[in-house]
Every structure is written in C-alpha cells, then in structure tokens.
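writing this on my phone so excuse typos. first protein, seq and then structure
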Amino acid sequence: MDFRMLLIHILRFAALAVFLSAAGASAGSGDIQLETGILGFSRNDVRIPGDGGTRFDMLDLTGSGPEPVARLLATWQFHPRHALRLTLAPLETRGTGRLDRDTTFEEVLFPAGVDTKGRYRFNTYRLAYRWTFHESRRWRWGFGASALVRDAEVSLEQPGLKAAKDDLGLVPLLHLRGEYWMNDQTALVADVEGAAAAQGRAIDAALQLQWDFRPGWRAAAGYRTIEGGADNDEVYTFAWLHQVVVSLGARF
C-alpha cells in the first residue's frame, strides 16, 4: 500500500477508535491499539468471473512485498466478562508487470506480454463480541463472534483497456482469544477470527508477545497471517498474507 494512503486510513480511523474507547471509559473500560508492520504475500490467485475468466497470479503484477500495513483496534470492556471490539484493517497493494497468457477478466481480454497495472484492495471493518469463559492467574480465554464488512476490489489496466471488480459484503466470523501470563507484565496472546464454508473461507490469526511496560500502556510484537477467499460463479480469489507486526496499546 502507498504510504500516503496508509497514513490517510490511519488518521481517518483513529478519530472513530478514540471516540469508542473514550465512550467505553465512561461505562466500563476502554482500550485502543495501533498495530503496524511489514506484509508479504505467498499467494494471490484471481479468476473473474469465477465460471468463465482466466486464472492468473496477481503477484506477477503487484509483487509479493514487502508492503507497510497497519490496523486499529478499539475495545469496550463493558463487563468483566463481556467486551466489544472494533477492528479497522485497510489493505491495498498495486504494481505493474506482465501477464503470462492472454487473460479474460470481467469479460475484457488482456493480451499477454504487455505492461499491465494490477490493483488488489481488501479493506475490512469488524465488530466483535467476546465472552471471557475462563480466567485464572495464568490463563484467560474468550470466545465470541464477529461481523466483518469487506470492501474489496481487483482491477487490471493496460493501454486502452481497463476492468475492475469490486465487492462490498458482510461475513460472519467466529472469534477466539487466549492469553497466557508468564508474569504480571508479560503475556503470550493468541487471537483468531475465522469461518469456512463451501463457497470460501476467511482466517485472521495472530500470535504475539505482550509487555505491559507501565500502568495503562502495553507493547507487543509477533506474527499475523491472513488466508482465504471465495469460489463461486462471480469470483475466484484466494490469497495468503504474512505479517511481522508490532503494536502499542493504551487503556482508559
């Protein structure tokens, strides 16, 4: 993603996340976290339409990375065992390369061997509910569900040719979070959202080491992976992303 566009997304979403966390502070506790890092792709296959287009590798056009990435998370802990979390995760990559075969995309034929601009966007906005079903001195486990709104687009462009497919949709996901506290300040945190069906799947999973370095403040670092896609008459898209991330969080 272009750094300037990434910064615009962060600023746009920061105001909303701060507002939600501040609101939570007045009726429970609020938490805001900024996560950033480096993104790489190991897969990004596309065929549009799904029942008649030509399958191609978007990585031939955009490259596999690295790309900067960021997301914002705002949590309202309105009860000791119940919480709501808003996640704002913009994602976009683009580049220029050449298709290895003549490619039909959105009923437009793009010849091989011609400089082709490719763009892949997959912004997600999620609202999750989590119930903490187990809490002890060392362990904390929570389970719930998320509503994910995706704002996706894939486009190709050559001199005199351009086609794009966008998609705005709602996807329900399951949510699981586990924390193992090694001491009063350090925890290993696993966080997963995902679902699977015959038409496709979506998985967003992270494993991070968290450090509460002063009251109300914490830092974390670790690995996040995102994998999934859809396979139907309209689209075939499957991607696998890998991220090395660091984050800074504050509680109110």
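second protein below, same order as before
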Amino acid sequence: MSNSEQVKFKINKEEVSIKVDSNTLLSDCIRHQLLKTGTHVGCEHGACGACTVILDGDAVRSCLILAKQADGCELTTVEGLSKKGELSNLQLMFKKHHALQCGFCTPGMLTTTHALLSQEPDASYERIKEVISGNICRCTGYINIIDAVYEARDYYR
C-alpha cells in the first residue's frame, strides 16, 4: 500500500494540484487523473517513446517518472502543442508530409521533435533522425516524419 501525496505542477500552462499515490507513474497521472489521453502508453519501459512529454523543456518518457517527481515543474503534453484548438506548425508539417498512419507514435514524435526544435531550431536532417531514433514507429518508415520536422524548423527560428 502506498502513501498519497499532493503534487502541484503546470500542465499545458494550467496549474494543477492533485493527490497521487507515491508510486503513481506520471503517464498514469496524465491519462487517468488529468484525462490528457493524447499521451499514449506503449511498452511501459521507456523504450518506445509513445509516452513522451516535455518536462521543464526536455523530452522525457512519462512512464519512467513518478508523478510526484513533476512537483513544481512545467509539463507539456501533445494537447499543449496547439493553441486554441488549431494545429501547431509542427503538426501541420506532419499533416503535409503524411508523417503519420495509425497515429499511435505521433504524440511522442511530436513532443520529442518539439523539444528538439525548441532547443535546436537549426537541427540537421541527421540530428533529427538521431533524436527520433528513440521513438518506435511501425507504420511510416520515418522518412516522412524526418521531412516534416526538417521543414518545421523554419517556425522555430
């Protein structure tokens, strides 16, 4: 039996204060308590990248972090990438380049590449390829994803 504790953080620019068990994973908190279901859970071992969110500016696997570790942090999920229900420029590039098929990996790809381009707006084609290599996609073959991210760089400069 685990202990409950109150944690406070910002998620998609909104302050939240929530009670979590001490062993609650951030991915479970996001999906089941905060109902942000865009964050997908695949392997639950940090290998697939489907659960990637942005924590204080860095792309992290939310299935490897306890919710209490986000206390005091700023968190962005895929839902937080768009403004006022409009697709972000990165999302528009994914659409333009047909960089998704089944969509399961897409939230993790978007958060991973958003974090990359926020930190490295001039990321090379090879750098983009290297960074997304930690995200598993079984449908697209990655080329369209890399092309979309490469074109989206203009919006991050």
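Residues 45 and 63 are 7 Å apart (CA to CA). thats all i got for now
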